[in-house]
Specification:
Blueprint (H helix, E strand, L loop, with lengths): L38 H10 L24 H13 L5 H10 L1 H7 L6 H9 L2 H17 L7 E10 L7 E2 L1 H23 L1 H4 L4 H36 L4 H5 L8 E2 L6 E4 L5 E12 L5 E7 L8 H12 L5 E3 L7 H9 L3 E3 L8 H4 L11 H10 L2 H24 L10 H24 L2
Parallel strand pairs: 1-7, 7-8
Antiparallel strand pairs: 1-5, 2-3, 4-5, 5-6
């Protein structure tokens, strides 16, 4: 029903309209941009107390040396930690946030930041990031917040920054390498020709030369990956039947010209896409991330012991119990864990012929003593109850990384850069849960 009077005069109605040309004087301190209890203040307090000197090792701006001052690594570390918690994985997007978003502006405190600086800092300090992650975990252990007596480990396949069509066989890669080298020669000849190079600025010349050289380098790296891929193919061929070999299921290995470190892996939805395998380990008692690794293999077998050694190195403590899923199961892993006095919680695979072999807890011919004890132990209610903690900790961490922290798809290329992204997530995740306790 229309309740507006028919003869109402609206010409005299008073309205508040925006007046954008009106001059105003505002007095505001940057510290007033965010409330006193904002999360970003905790991030700054924690990072401000850290020793970030490893990030300054290669800094050229020194006393008595000309040039522009280097951006404080404390600021850059805080920006990327807060960006990771917000699910921001793009340096360009982060640079925009430093202009438009109050918490990021508070962190910057008037310091201008461009996306080149942010992008380079994110992936060029793997050793310093790894050391920072180790020292952070050591702090949590010293404060009694983290105990690694029992850890849970799981891997998650993260979509890589490479297209499925970028994978080429050796013959095609050799042709592409020859074309790339020829292109580098042509670009160099263009730069040396004054008539043609006169129309290009110095920045355009450098960009063309860099693009041609990077293309050649990526193809060369892809060719260098082939021997390793051929070795894996040969190992896989030992477990494939003659029927499958005749059907062509063992194909010639291919490498990506976009990201040579990437491999095609089976994803969680059952599809196959270029990806990297990110491995995380967490303390089940506190849910803190205590181990990080990035691999370009699509299987988890053989990764339990290296992760356990990494956690012990970072924390200075001994792992007593290790929870992993069935993808990590090898009898060699169980034997080595028993030698190290570690209880490995991993479900046994059900037998193909239960009528002949019995249930999964029944010993098999050739089982070692450690494997027999493991089968019996995993059938107990106590072991089943403990094993439930694996899904309740590490799987939720992986889900958080992909859903909320920008790890649904990588925006960087290469295992080393992906390792940096994984370390940023682990640092941010621990800081989110233990930041206020670390400064207490």
């Amino acid at each position: 029903m229309n309740n507006t009077p028919q003869n109402m005069d609206v010409s005299s109605v008073r309205l508040r309209r925006p007046e954008r040309m009106q001059m105003t004087m505002q007095t505001q301190c940057v510290d007033d941009l965010i409330p006193p209890d904002h999360q970003v203040r905790v991030i700054w307090q924690v990072v401000d107390a850290m020793d970030l000197s490893p990030f300054l090792v290669f800094t050229k701006a020194r006393e008595g040396v000309g040039g522009r001052d280097t951006t404080d690594p404390r600021l850059l570390v805080c920006l990327w930690l807060h960006a990771t918690l917000r699910g921001i994985g793009s340096a360009r997007q982060l640079a925009r946030q430093c202009v438009d978003n109050a918490p990021f502006r508070w962190l910057c405190g008037g310091v201008s930041i461009n996306h080149h600086t942010l992008s380079d800092f994110r992936v060029q300090h793997e050793a310093a990031l790894d050391d920072l992650f180790t020292r952070t975990i050591a702090t949590l252990v010293d404060k009694g917040l983290v105990s690694v007596q029992r850890i849970a480990q799981d891997g998650t396949r993260v979509r890589a920054s490479a297209g499925a069509g970028s994978f080429r066989r050796q013959e095609r890669l050799e042709k592409l390498l020859a074309e790339a080298r020829e292109h580098v020669t042509q670009v160099k000849a263009l730069m040396d020709d004054p008539a043609q190079a006169a129309a290009l600025s110095a920045r355009q010349k450098a960009a063309r030369q860099r693009a041609a050289q990077e293309r050649e380098e990526r193809v060369r790296q892809a060719i260098e990956q082939l021997p390793e891929l051929e070795q894996r193919q040969a190992e896989r061929a030992k477990t494939v039947s003659k029927k499958d070999k005749a059907a062509g299921k063992i194909k010639e290995p291919r490498a990506s010209t976009t990201d040579p470190d990437t491999r095609v892996m089976k994803m969680g939805d059952g599809g196959f896409r270029p990806a990297l395998n990110m491995q995380f380990a967490a303390d089940t008692a506190s849910r803190a991330i205590v181990g990080v690794e990035v691999l370009n293999v699509g299987v988890d077998s053989g990764q339990a012991e290296p992760m356990r050694q990494q956690v012990e190195r970072r924390t200075g403590r001994t792992v007593g119990e290790h929870l992993v899923d069935g993808g990590y199961l090898t009898f060699d892993e169980i034997d080595r864990a028993a030698e190290q006095d570690v209880k490995l919680y991993v479900p046994p695979k059900p037998p193909r012929n239960p009528a002949q072999c019995g249930d999964a807890s029944a010993p098999r011919p050739g089982d070692s003593e450690a494997v027999k004890q493991w089968r019996q132990h995993m059938s107990s209610e106590e072991a089943k109850s403990i094993y439930k903690q694996r899904a309740a900790t590490i799987e939720t961490i992986n889900a958080d990384a992909k859903t909320h922290r920008g790890l649904g798809r990588l925006l960087v290329r290469g295992v080393e850069k992906a390792k940096c992204v994984a370390l940023w997530f682990a640092l941010a995740y621990n800081l989110m849960h233990f930041g206020s306790q670390m400064i207490a």
